[in-house]
Amino acid sequence: MTSPLEKLAKLDASIHEEPADSAEYEGLVHSGRVRLADARRSDIALESRFDLAYNASHAISLAALRRCGYRSGHRYIVFQLLPHTLGLGPDVWRVLDKCHKVRNQGEYEGFLNVDERLIADLIAAATTVLETLEALGPL
Q1: CA distances in angstroms from 112 to 9, 12, 39, 49, listed in the order given
Q2: pTM beyond 0.85
Q3: Overall domain count for the chain
Q4: What is the pLDDT of residues 42-57, one digit of tens each?
Q5: Dihedral of CA 71/108/80/28: which sign?
Q6: Tell me, what CATH number does 19's domain have?
Q7: What are the tens digits of pLDDT across the range 70-101?
Q8: Among 40, 89, 104, 129, which one has the highest count of C-beta atoms within 10 angstroms of its own C-beta?
């Protein structure tokens, strides 16, 4: 039976098969874990906390995709593939997708519109991704 990721790889050139690499995987998970811990600190600027939490969520979501033996050419796809990589629903990936749009607005238009609520939602979503990934055990 063909997996959803296999089907997507055949239809969309932005995702392709690439064997998982344990060193890369562990590095991504470590990076995500450290950044997520720092994002929880209330003594740094909101924008910095957002940046840390967003990059943590991306690293962890990319680790999930790499664990499955795929790589993406576009950042946002790792969030949209969470139902296929970790079985997570829209309550998680939609938050991450929204934050990707906020991140892009900040990066490309110079306007980063973040508040405590968005950061709390982002940290919660990233934590769910990390906990789900870690529950799978080592690569």
Answers
A1: 33, 30, 16, 12
A2: yes
A3: 1
A4: 999 999 999 999 999 9
A5: positive
A6: 1.20.120.330
A7: 999 888 899 999 999 999 999 999 999 999 99
A8: 129
